[in-house]
């Protein structure tokens, strides 16, 4: 536990905050000196951070003005420091502001912004910077109005360009509507060791490179892993092709396809071994099953065979619809090998019986526990939650991936990583990461289709692993 006086932590927070603001001003305006900064100051310690950071900027020649929401309760030490450094207070937002520091409310707030705070924020945000553009908006610790624990935005809230947060990454900055409000998130280490391990983790490239199975000289197709693809149908042959494309970009040594789109797959991927059914597929070390499979009796039979296999399984789309009526959920709970499900919001709702709602982390954890599976809940910030309460948030997501068929590519890749020996959580996190990178790469060429994402996947994986 931390034993430092609270004032020390606030000074460290303010120092990190002021450093970041100075950098943002220099990047945009070429210098810190004579720039104009407006502090929006609430009555709690969040406002104190803003005031102390403002004092540091004032000492560097910045014109710092503080707008106090509750003048009688503003942080006394912070206000004195600001004044001593040459800063002053104002009753309303000035017309010209280069950077706004949102110190209205931090982790001590609940609910959306109160009406007075909301109108102050909106007036400040509509001021103009000295270059004629919009002022840079920096949130202190959390964009005011965002629930720091869940990412819910129940009412009015600040939309920041950058959030400088202290000590740990709050869930509300990483998931749900809060993630969009936070902009770029900078973590300042204030030397505070959290009393509980961080609930949420964000994978970086080093994590993915460390986990990704790499073939050695002794490897053969079985040590690299054989992935089975039970997706698509003669009606939905595209789904089969997309999941095979995803699977082929992974580390597996061989891809087997089982289903009624076999001819279609064989024409496009001569290296894939095709059969008409899961039962006849031969040895497979992980399955992906679902997209384009349909929901008829034949599809249900294929899903049952996949679930009975003692190997890891990734389930998507129609497999999730087939599971939604509950009849096959016992098979799921009884499995001993890892299972990963990859729902979007509507599939999640059908499967769980409740919508993911504002608290996407709690919802994903709830479904993981309910079904004894790893849940990859798709979204702008995809959440991965395991039955043993591990939670990861994917940082590479992009709106470009919100297009039909991209999920088929994702689940194919995920299954290849399962076949390569990764745990359900790592396979899900690594697949989401690489898939996001492929979506970003594909978007460079204009509007994105799932075929573009599939085509970009191999080189994106190579770039992540380079
Ligand atoms: N913990 C640490 O170790 C460290 C913490 N640090 C910093 O302290 C911050 C937490 O400070 P905190 O606890 O004083 O609360 P804080 O976020 O300022 O909010 C309270 C104020 O907000 C108001 N308010 C509430 N809801 C509202 C709403 N919806 N809309 C508008 N206003 C609302 C509420 O009003 P009241 O209810 O009192 O009328 C009160 O005035 C933390 O985020 C970080 O920045 C750093 O210095 C580093 C070390
Ligand atoms: K804030």
From TrEMBL:
<feature type="binding site">
    <location>
        <position position="292"/>
    </location>
    <ligand>
        <name>(6S)-NADPHX</name>
    </ligand>
</feature>
<feature type="binding site">
    <location>
        <position position="46"/>
    </location>
    <ligand>
        <name>K(+)</name>
    </ligand>
</feature>
<dbReference type="InterPro" id="IPR030677">
    <property type="entry name" value="Nnr"/>
</dbReference>
<comment type="subunit">
    <text>Homotetramer.</text>
</comment>
<keyword id="KW-0067">ATP-binding</keyword>
<comment type="function">
    <text>Catalyzes the dehydration of the S-form of NAD(P)HX at the expense of ADP, which is converted to AMP. Together with NAD(P)HX epimerase, which catalyzes the epimerization of the S- and R-forms, the enzyme allows the repair of both epimers of NAD(P)HX, a damaged form of NAD(P)H that is a result of enzymatic or heat-dependent hydration.</text>
</comment>
<dbReference type="InterPro" id="IPR029056">
    <property type="entry name" value="Ribokinase-like"/>
</dbReference>
<keyword id="KW-0413">Isomerase</keyword>
<feature type="domain" description="YjeF C-terminal">
    <location>
        <begin position="204"/>
        <end position="464"/>
    </location>
</feature>
<keyword id="KW-0520">NAD</keyword>
<keyword id="KW-0479">Metal-binding</keyword>
<feature type="binding site">
    <location>
        <position position="239"/>
    </location>
    <ligand>
        <name>(6S)-NADPHX</name>
    </ligand>
</feature>
<dbReference type="GO" id="GO:0046496">
    <property type="term" value="P:nicotinamide nucleotide metabolic process"/>
</dbReference>
<dbReference type="Pfam" id="PF03853">
    <property type="entry name" value="YjeF_N"/>
</dbReference>
<feature type="binding site">
    <location>
        <begin position="378"/>
        <end position="382"/>
    </location>
    <ligand>
        <name>AMP</name>
    </ligand>
</feature>
<feature type="binding site">
    <location>
        <position position="344"/>
    </location>
    <ligand>
        <name>(6S)-NADPHX</name>
    </ligand>
</feature>
<comment type="similarity">
    <text>In the N-terminal section; belongs to the NnrE/AIBP family.</text>
</comment>
<dbReference type="InterPro" id="IPR000631">
    <property type="entry name" value="CARKD"/>
</dbReference>
<dbReference type="InterPro" id="IPR004443">
    <property type="entry name" value="YjeF_N_dom"/>
</dbReference>
<comment type="function">
    <text>Catalyzes the epimerization of the S- and R-forms of NAD(P)HX, a damaged form of NAD(P)H that is a result of enzymatic or heat-dependent hydration. This is a prerequisite for the S-specific NAD(P)H-hydrate dehydratase to allow the repair of both epimers of NAD(P)HX.</text>
</comment>
<feature type="binding site">
    <location>
        <begin position="45"/>
        <end position="49"/>
    </location>
    <ligand>
        <name>(6S)-NADPHX</name>
    </ligand>
</feature>
<dbReference type="GO" id="GO:0046872">
    <property type="term" value="F:metal ion binding"/>
</dbReference>
<keyword id="KW-0547">Nucleotide-binding</keyword>
<feature type="domain" description="YjeF N-terminal">
    <location>
        <begin position="1"/>
        <end position="198"/>
    </location>
</feature>
<feature type="binding site">
    <location>
        <position position="407"/>
    </location>
    <ligand>
        <name>AMP</name>
    </ligand>
</feature>
<feature type="binding site">
    <location>
        <position position="102"/>
    </location>
    <ligand>
        <name>K(+)</name>
    </ligand>
</feature>
<dbReference type="InterPro" id="IPR017953">
    <property type="entry name" value="Carbohydrate_kinase_pred_CS"/>
</dbReference>
<dbReference type="GO" id="GO:0110051">
    <property type="term" value="P:metabolite repair"/>
</dbReference>
<keyword id="KW-0511">Multifunctional enzyme</keyword>
<feature type="binding site">
    <location>
        <begin position="106"/>
        <end position="112"/>
    </location>
    <ligand>
        <name>(6S)-NADPHX</name>
    </ligand>
</feature>
<protein>
    <recommendedName>
        <fullName>Bifunctional NAD(P)H-hydrate repair enzyme</fullName>
        <ecNumber>4.2.1.136</ecNumber>
        <ecNumber>5.1.99.6</ecNumber>
    </recommendedName>
</protein>
<keyword id="KW-0521">NADP</keyword>
<dbReference type="Pfam" id="PF01256">
    <property type="entry name" value="Carb_kinase"/>
</dbReference>
<feature type="binding site">
    <location>
        <position position="141"/>
    </location>
    <ligand>
        <name>(6S)-NADPHX</name>
    </ligand>
</feature>
<feature type="binding site">
    <location>
        <position position="144"/>
    </location>
    <ligand>
        <name>K(+)</name>
    </ligand>
</feature>
<dbReference type="GO" id="GO:0005524">
    <property type="term" value="F:ATP binding"/>
</dbReference>
<feature type="binding site">
    <location>
        <position position="408"/>
    </location>
    <ligand>
        <name>(6S)-NADPHX</name>
    </ligand>
</feature>
<dbReference type="GO" id="GO:0052855">
    <property type="term" value="F:ADP-dependent NAD(P)H-hydrate dehydratase activity"/>
</dbReference>
<dbReference type="InterPro" id="IPR036652">
    <property type="entry name" value="YjeF_N_dom_sf"/>
</dbReference>
<comment type="similarity">
    <text>Belongs to the NnrD/CARKD family.</text>
</comment>
<keyword id="KW-0456">Lyase</keyword>
<keyword id="KW-0630">Potassium</keyword>
């Amino acid at each position: 536990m931390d034993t430092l006086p609270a004032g020390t932590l606030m000074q460290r927070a303010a120092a990190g905050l002021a450093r970041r603001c100075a950098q943002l001003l220099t990047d945009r305006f070429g210098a810190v000196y004579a720039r104009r900064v407006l502090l929006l100051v609430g009555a709690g310690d969040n406002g104190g951070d803003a005031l102390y950071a403002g004092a540091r900027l004032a000492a560097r020649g910045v014109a710092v003005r503080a707008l106090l929401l509750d003048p009688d309760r503003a942080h006394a030490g912070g206000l004195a420091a600001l004044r001593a450094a040459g800063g002053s207070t104002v009753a309303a937002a000035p017309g010209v502001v280069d950077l706004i520091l949102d110190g209205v409310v931090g982790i001590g707030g609940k609910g959306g912004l109160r009406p007075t705070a909301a109108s102050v924020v909106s007036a400040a945000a509509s001021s103009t910077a000295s270059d004629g553009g919009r002022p840079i908006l920096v949130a202190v610790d959390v964009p005011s109005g965002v629930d720091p624990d869940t990412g819910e935005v129940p009412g009015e809230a600040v939309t920041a360009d950058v959030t400088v947060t202290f000590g740990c990454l709050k869930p509300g900055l990483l998931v749900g509507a809060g993630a969009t409000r936070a902009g770029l998130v900078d973590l300042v280490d204030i030397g505070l060791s959290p009393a509980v391990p961080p609930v949420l983790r964000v994978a970086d490239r080093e994590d993915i490179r460390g986990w990704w199975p790499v073939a050695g000289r002794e490897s053969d197709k079985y040590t690299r892993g054989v992935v089975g693809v039970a997706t698509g149908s003669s009606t939905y042959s595209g789904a089969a092709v997309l999941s095979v494309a995803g699977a082929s970009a992974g580390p597996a040594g061989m891809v087997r396809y089982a289903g009624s789109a076999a001819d279609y797959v064989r024409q496009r991927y001569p290296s894939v071994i095709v059969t008409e059914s899961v039962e006849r597929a031969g040895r497979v070390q992980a399955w992906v099953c679902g997209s384009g499979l349909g929901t008829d009796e034949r599809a249900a039979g294929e899903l049952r065979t996949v679930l009975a296999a003692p190997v890891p399984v990734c389930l998507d789309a129609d497999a999730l619809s087939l599971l939604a009526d509950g009849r096959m959920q016992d098979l799921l709970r009884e499995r001993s090998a890892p299972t990963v499900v990859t729902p979007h919001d509507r599939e999640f709702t059908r499967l769980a019986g409740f919508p993911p709602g504002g608290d996407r982390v709690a919802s994903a954890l709830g479904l993981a526990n309910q079904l004894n599976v790893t849940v990859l809940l798709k979204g702008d910030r995809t959440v991965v939650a395991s039955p043993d309460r591990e939670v990861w948030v994917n940082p590479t997501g992009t709106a470009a991936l919100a297009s039909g068929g991209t999920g088929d590519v994702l689940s194919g890749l995920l299954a290849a990583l399962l076949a390569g020996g990764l745990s359900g959580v790592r396979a899900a996190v690594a697949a989401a990461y690489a898939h996001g990178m492929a979506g970003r790469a594909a978007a460079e060429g204009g509007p994105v289709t799932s075929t573009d994402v599939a085509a970009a996947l191999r080189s994106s994986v190579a770039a992540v692993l380079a």
